[in-house]
Amino acid sequence: MRIKAIYIKNLKMSPDKVASQVAHAVKNLGITPLDSDIIVLGVSKTKFDELVVKHDCYVQVDKGLTEVEAGTATAAAWIEDSLQKYDEMVEKVLG
Asked: What's the fold here for domain 2-94?
């Protein structure tokens, strides 16, 4: 299974902040297999908005405690492989 994660590079977040925001976005996808490939890309705000509309994804919105203002969308993640495969995997895990 392949997971794609994106973050908005225009926000100029520190590497630690980017890692945190991407991790939150991927974690909030729910159950994912241990051997998933995760692809992370920095994109412009315009491209971020296009990809969020195109994919069924989780969008991470920051709480505003450190580097960006509260309510700022910072990262997003989605499962690239077919949802049918994902649903089958979840059913197998949860029974």
From this structure: Bit1 (3.40.1490)
